[in-house]
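Hi V.,

Quick status before I head out on leave. The structure for the redesign project is tokenized and pasted below; the design run finished overnight.
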């Protein structure tokens, strides 16, 4: 590659050889996040299972050039999408034909907010609908509301990290359309009182979305490995939609999530049909046009390869990692999990010390902790089981590096970014 005067890359006059390209990529990647050793806590949810990973590589390779824009041309992909909706639907207790496969959690949330807007306008006559979310709701809701020109009403959460339904009730207006609860939320790993929030929606004939991007493929098994799980899925009366990411605790590579609805009529509100151009009928179930096939096939392969027993085994490992990390944190003076989390997702605070400095001291020891306003963020996958002891040792040393006092309350860590 050659560079122009401003340092940006220009198209090479002659194409580079595969060896040259791979060499450059390998060199450039040496600066990327190294998650394989279990020292990163978001971005990659790895099962730590070589056979599973090898299978996903083979499946992705088979579908590298296929385009899910028109699933009717690819009956194999069409069936996989139907299977994903049916398998996901069964796990969270909705029908087999009430879901769409999307490219990720943000995308699923966008679809659910879009559906709510269309439902509010056309079924309820609310021209300018509002979406009511806890302040812990993922930024995807803020993004969807901004893009779709909808007002987001944010309700502060309590000290336990959960939204109080009475506060949600007080926030309702005659423009409210969609109430949101997370199972769990990203910052604290706490599960909102879904039953109470959904009951509020149900009583008033409103929609209720459960953001289970993290929990959709975890909580059904989390409960079965003996962890306490409050009601959160479609068995709760009043829950009308859900986002559930397969590329998180469904253990496939990036680009696969489900948006699920209580019934097909709601799902159809996000469908798009168009024939007012010379190119024939164009239809899509999500805003995407051309869609890469590997994430669909990978997600299907992941669920089929793990099966119920594989998910139970993965979840057992996550539960063990969760116990080991909690034990390590509890054994370390100067840190605590706050608020208490319900899941393997949590915030670790450093009362009286600057958590950004403790996080930096952990980074200096090779960890890559995500930093948020109130503390360090942990999200555990099966492959973290092997590093809990080391984490505890390094955490104690990192805390000892940072003196009490001088807490920088302004500093904010990054979670997403712009290239
Ligand atoms: C609770 C929750 N909702 C939504 C999302 C957004 O998912 P994605 O990054 O796949 O768009 C995340 C991502 O971590 C999440 O944790």
């Amino acid at each position: 590659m050659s560079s122009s005067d401003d340092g940006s890359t220009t198209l090479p006059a002659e194409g580079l050889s595969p060896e040259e390209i791979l060499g450059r990529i390998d060199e450039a990647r040496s600066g990327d996040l190294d998650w394989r050793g279990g020292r990163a806590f978001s971005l990659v949810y790895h099962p730590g299972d070589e056979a599973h990973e090898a299978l996903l590589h083979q499946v992705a390779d088979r579908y590298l050039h296929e385009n899910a824009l028109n699933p009717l041309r690819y009956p194999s992909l069409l069936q996989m999408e139907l299977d994903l909706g049916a398998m996901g639907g069964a796990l969270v207790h909705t029908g087999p034909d009430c879901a769409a496969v999307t490219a990720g959690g943000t995308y699923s949330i966008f679809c659910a907010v879009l559906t709510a807007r269309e439902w509010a306008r056309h079924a309820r006559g609310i021209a300018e609908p509002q979406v009511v979310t806890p302040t812990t709701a993922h930024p995807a809701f803020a993004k969807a509301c901004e893009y779709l020109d909808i007002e987001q009403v944010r309700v502060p959460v309590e000290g336990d990290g959960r939204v109080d339904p009475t506060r949600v009730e007080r926030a309702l207006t005659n423009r409210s359309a969609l109430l949101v609860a997370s199972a769990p939320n990203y910052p604290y790993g706490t599960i909102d009182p879904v039953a109470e929030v959904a009951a509020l929606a149900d009583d008033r004939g409103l929609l209720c979305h459960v953001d289970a991007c993290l929990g959709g493929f975890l909580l059904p098994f989390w409960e079965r490995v003996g962890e306490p799980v409050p009601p959160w899925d479609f068995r709760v009366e009043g829950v009308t939609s859900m986002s559930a990411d397969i590329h998180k605790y469904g253990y496939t590579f990036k680009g696969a999530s489900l948006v699920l609805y209580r019934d097909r009529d709601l799902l159809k509100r996000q469908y798009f049909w168009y024939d007012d151009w010379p190119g024939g009928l164009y239809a899509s179930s999500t805003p995407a046009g051309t869609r890469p096939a590997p994430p669909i096939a990978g997600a299907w392969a992941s669920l089929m390869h793990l099966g119920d027993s594989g998910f139970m085994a993965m979840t057992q490992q996550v539960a063990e990692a969760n116990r080991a990390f909690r034990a390590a944190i509890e054994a370390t003076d100067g840190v605590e999990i706050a608020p208490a989390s319900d899941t393997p997702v949590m915030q670790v605070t450093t009362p009286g010390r600057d958590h950004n400095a403790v996080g930096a001291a952990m980074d200096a020891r090779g960890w890559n902790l995500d930093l948020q306003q109130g503390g360090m963020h942990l999200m555990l996958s099966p492959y973290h089981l092997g590093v809990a002891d080391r984490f505890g040792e390094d955490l104690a040393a990192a805390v000892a590096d940072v003196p009490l006092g001088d807490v920088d309350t302004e500093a904010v860590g990054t979670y997403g970014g712009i290239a």
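Above is the designed sequence. The two ends are 19 Å apart (CA to CA).

G. will cover questions while I'm gone.

Best,
W.
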